[in-house]
Amino acid sequence: MENISEKSLAKSHLVNIYNREKMDITGVTEVISSTEKEIFARLQNVVMTIQGSDLRVVKLIPEEELLSVTGKIDALRYDTKINKKSFMSKVFK
Predict the structure, then answer these.
(1) pLDDT at residue 12, as a whole number
(2) Predicted structure pTM score
(3) CA distances from residue 70 to 15, 36, 54, 61, 83 in whole angstroms, order as listed
(4) CA distance 13 to 31
(5) Is-contact 79 53, C-beta < 8 A?
(6) Dist. CA 82–CA 2, nearest whole Å
(7) Per-domain residue ranges for the chain?
(8) Residue 80 falls in which region: left (phi positive, over 0), alpha (psi -120 to 50) or beta
(9) Which phi and psi (to 5°) does residue 37 adopt?
(10) What is the pLDDT of residues 24-83, one digit of tens each?
(11) What is the dihedral of CA 67, 55, 20, 4, to 10 degrees?
């Protein structure tokens, strides 16, 4: 588990979702991890978790803080911590 520093939000971000099949997000500074079911993206002071199926990072432009994702988008969540499961916990469900 990784803590994100608590600093004031200097920039806002914008999320556009098109028919739950495509998503454009501004204000993304980094993609922490990406699988077909889950994408963790770091914003200014939070981590956005995108859940769904057949998810793909189509475009990531760090200089412009832009992220584009395609796939079936089921959920979007904001967290102050990254809660990734360990490899062994995934193997022994």
Answers:
(1) 83
(2) 0.75
(3) 13, 10, 8, 15, 23
(4) 15
(5) no
(6) 5
(7) 2-83
(8) alpha
(9) -110, -15
(10) 999 999 999 999 999 999 988 889 999 999 999 999 998 999 999 999 999 999 988 666
(11) -50
Residue type, 92: F
Between the alpha carbon of residue 54 and those of residues 38, 45, 83, 84, the distances in Å are 9, 27, 21, 19
Look at residue 19 in the predicted model and tell me its pLDDT.
Answer: 95
At the topology level, CATH places domain 2-83 in: Immunoglobulin-like (2.60.40)
The one-letter code for the residue type at 77 is R
| Residues contacting 93, CB < 8 A, separation 6+ | none
Q: Quote the CA–CA distance of 50 and 32 in Å, as a whole number.
A: 12
Q: Mean pLDDT over residues 8-21, rounded? A: 80
* Token pair recorded at residue 2: 């990784």
